[in-house]
Amino acid sequence: MQRLQPIVRGPRFLRVFKLMLVALALIPLFQITSATIPQIALGLAATSSSELPPRFTVPASADVGFPILPTSQDPEAVNAQTVCPGYLASNVKNTSSGITADLKLAGSACNVYGTDVSDLTLAIDYQSPERVSIHIEPAVLDSSNSSYFVLPEGLVPRPASEGGNLSSSAFEITWSNDPTFSFAVTRSSNGDVLFNTTGSKLVYEDQFIEFVTSMPEDYNVYGLGERIHQLRLGNDFTATTYAADAGTPLDYGVYGTHPVYLDTRYFEQSSSGDWSYFTGNESDPEGNYTSYTHAVYNRNAHGQEVVLNTSSITWRLLGGSIDLFFFEGPSQPEAIRAYQSVATGFPALQQYWTFGYNQCRWGYANVSDLQDVIDNFKKFDIPLETIWSDIDYMSQYRDFSTDENTFPLPEFQELLSQVHANNQHYIPIVDSAIYIPNPDNTSDAYSTYSRGHDLDLFLKNPDGSEYIGTVWPGYTVFPDWHSDKAVQWWTDELTAWYKDVPFDGIWIDMSEVSSFCIGSCGTHNLSLNPVHPPFLLPGEPGNIDYNFPEGFNITNSTEAASAAAASASQSSSVASATATASASAVASSTSTSYYRSTPTPGVRNIEHPPYAINNVNGDLSVHAVSPNATHTDGVLEYDVHNLFGHQILNATYHALLNVFKGKRPYIIGRSTFAGSGTLAGHWGGDNNAKWSDMYYAIPQALSFSIFGIPMFGPDTCGFAGNSDEELCNRWMQLSAFFPFYRNHNVIKAASQEPYVWSSVIDATKTAMAIRYSILPYIYTLFWKAHSHGDTVLRALAWEFSSDPSLRSADRQFLLGPALMIVPVLNPGATSVNGVFPGLNGGTRWYGYYSKNEVVDVKPGTNVTIDAPLGHIPVFVRGGYIIPQQKPGYTTAESRNGTWSLLVALDKNGEAQGDLYLDDGESLVPQDTTQVSLVASGSTLKASIAGSFVDMNALANVTILGITGSPSNVTLNGQSVDSGVATFNATSKAFSISGLEAATQGGAWKSNWTLSWT
């Protein structure tokens, strides 16, 4: 057997060689062949015929990097604050919108984690009354990028100045040279110091930038994604951002990069009328509080750490510039809106059908599998909007291909034709790496690669050769989005493929960008292609997943015991095989010796920067394209790694504009950056079938509301591991209130479609009935997000900003302003604790199902809410009107349902709401209608503006919190003879039904007033 040619890189060659021997000794144990395991072959779905030749397995050592100890955890690490000199400001000049100055090292260079930049420039710009920027970069930029890289506006737009000045600004910036340069940002309205580097030093090197701001006691910071963590980050936490293919481990940075945070500060008014900062001690439910929130965005795409200490926040960047933007707020929604308006853009308006239910699995291995799933949903009358394909459909996992044996085009096209005829949709996965053919096998030609190669648009090695990593299909190359030809090539490939596979949107995966080996491991090894990844795939011998949710051993003790025994047996077998292989290989040291890179003046260590961030995969090259990969413009991957995911979303967006002329592109992507929400949505990544993962989906979703990506949802019921009935029951109901609603799990795990369990069928249909009825409300929320920067999913603290007890609340949430969801997040529970915010201010809450007002609840206390399995508590906030339609099997059917209105009156007997209508798909709709709904006194008025025609009648109106027992109902002064009015004295709900005859031709064709006496 031909062996993998190792890439030798300096001092670790001996250690890598030892690991290679171990891995190569293991290959015979785990070699995947068509003869031994015909059903899995290269992958786990049958990707080709049973005649596939054996596949060479890339050694596991190929993805083993240097043992890296994060510098922040290294006891030998030097504290830059103690050894570096800082800077002094000079040549300070006032401009029409701010200040400019020169910054010069205040002493000898420390060169602690790179080469100090001796001369910097400072620019303070009062960009608008609500926004100020502070920009620091090298005085002389190196055009060759060999010393440092400052993010060009062509890659990430920079918020532009709008002619602001100090006199009109919500902020005041001061600076000092005592003892070295520092600056402070103060909120003008109340004198609160928001950012203050006094007492610390600015450190600016070619591979390390550090600046520190002091913070008040027990501060409240949110954002800095992407990671699986509580919503409030806490004051003893390191937020690392380096786009990583790593599943969903707790607390580490994972797929996306969003260097922005919200800082919310509460103030308490004493009996004397003075205001003092609320320190986070137990809040008084009867106290008098107010809050101020600002946002801080650092426009930098390098790998970075933000260290949240007890009384300070430290930013540490691996390059680039300091490009800070402060947004006033002063509320959380206003701060989010301000950030999105100029830094990211407002989120894309999704097509209406995208809010329907989605079903996916890695393991739908052929056309028949997809057909069976579609048929089963129909059989059990569970709404299904979109069927998805994971990598199973591809020919040997190659983009823009279909397996001729399992997904023959005639059968596949017939299936998709039926899907579309039923007003349903289809989404396939597209990966971010392109297979490079085996040059010794003429039948291995792959035209997508050939066309891209001819255009010279793949990432390169430093020597100019193509960078060749390995992903699912084997050795692969990676599109270089810096090439001006790349987007057109991608557009052409997607457009051509659409003619064979008429998809409705695209799912982008592996876009961090991920590679399963370190460096250009495919160079000189292409004769082995296609190859098996350097790890066991799910379901392969030695990698059967026996994990089940917490509590499974209680509800399913026999099955849990069997799974535990099988798992122990598997672990023992794998350990024995590993020990046997290791015994025949060169023995390696049992002690860990961490690799520490030391700076060389004037030279950047690209692969192992001297400062090691707390990257989830350790070495920056592990499970990723290495930092030394080179773009066509000479830019190194080191400097733009975090942007690949955003750039492939941009390319896909423009490709779909070409495929679907005039329609909104629908894309769900994995790796994102600031601004990705204008292009795509995001799913929560490779989570686990665990109760804890279901909980973490809530703070993750709320964080993406901050980031401007509201089209978010987790893999419902969990991706990895085996779900069970109870978890899937609860999760299918919870996800019904997330914008992106998809069930997806891993190959060879237990099936978890909602029709697998009878109780999950019932729970799912109950939650879906609510979701599909409120689709007009959800769609209107997205229109508001798209046009005004409103949030869709909302933290309680954002809507009730005067209550500090809510600052960490992330176990329940709001869908828009009107609906509060209180899910069960623990196994075995039949009730859930929930809080009802705003009671001090007179907020009313009503049960969605019972229509009763929630009473006998004290402010600031948890209430036990009945929640038997199959029931998710939902509450309606007084003061809001929710437009609804009769739900159907698909969104198209639902859009043809009759209208109804749910009116929840506040303490003053008033409520308001709105509705946005268009064709649900056009990028720029020609006809739109906006409806304003206002309830006051004994009337409900609808004011209509626009030209979009909706022919559906209004069927009923339900008014909650009404007093008395009305009997006479009129519409525009005319008695509604056909209507039936009922008043429930217990719930105080007044229902008016039978309005169809009075609203023939459409509920929104003209203004109307509904009155009752």
Automatic annotation (TrEMBL):
Q: What class of enzyme is it?
A: hydrolase
Q: Which GO terms describe its molecular function?
A: alpha-1,4-glucosidase activity; carbohydrate binding
Q: State the superkingdom.
A: Eukaryota
* Residues of the Glycosyl hydrolase family 31 C-terminal domain: 789-882
Alphabetical list of InterPro entries matching this protein? Gal_mutarotase_sf_dom, GH, Glyco_hydro_31_AS, Glyco_hydro_31_C, Glyco_hydro_31_CS, Glyco_hydro_31_TIM, Glyco_hydro_b
Residues in Glycoside hydrolase family 31 TIM barrel domain copies: 347-781
Catalysed reaction equations from the record: Hydrolysis of terminal, non-reducing (1->4)-linked alpha-D-glucose residues with release of alpha-D-glucose
What are its E.C. numbers?
3.2.1.20
What keywords tag this UniProt record? Glycoprotein, Glycosidase, Hydrolase, Signal
One biological process term in Gene Ontology: carbohydrate metabolic process
Enumerate the PROSITE patterns for this protein. GLYCOSYL_HYDROL_F31_1, GLYCOSYL_HYDROL_F31_2
The signal sequence is none
The record's family statement is: Belongs to the glycosyl hydrolase 31 family.
Give the protein's recorded name: alpha-glucosidase
